[in-house]
Amino acid sequence: MGRELTGPLEGRELRFGIVVSRFNRSVTAPLLAGALEGLAAHGVADDDVVVAHVPGAFEIPFAENCGSRLMSAVGGIGPSGISSRQLSLA
After folding, report:
1. pTM for the full model?
2. pLDDT tens for residues 52-80?
3. Which of 14, 20, 51, 53 has its CA 20 to 30 A from that of 81?
4. Distance (Å, whole) CA 77 – CA 80
5. What CA–CA distance (Å, rounded) separates 53 from 82?
6. d(Cα 66, Cα 88) in Å, to the nearest integer?
7. DSSP state, 5?
8. Mind listing the pLDDT tens digit for each residue in 14-62?
9. Phi, psi of 28 (to 5 degrees)
């Protein structure tokens, strides 16, 4: 078995972006609520989270790419699942 690396799950002073598809809100709304709840549980302030709504899943990667320069991490939520972009903590 390989080595396991773990670290603190502390989000203070980090900025997060979440890109959410407006298509199929019955799927994406609960995923967004869970993501926001999880960030808050790990100490991320409301002011350090930016949520961008896009028309559909096709636009998620483009919006993630735009936000990746400004955020510590950017994730996308669409009707087909969750993606992530740039998880480097600069």
Report:
1. 0.77
2. 999 988 888 888 887 777 788 888 887 76
3. 14
4. 8
5. 14
6. 15
7. -
8. 899 999 999 888 888 998 999 999 999 999 999 999 999 999 888 888 8
9. -75, -30
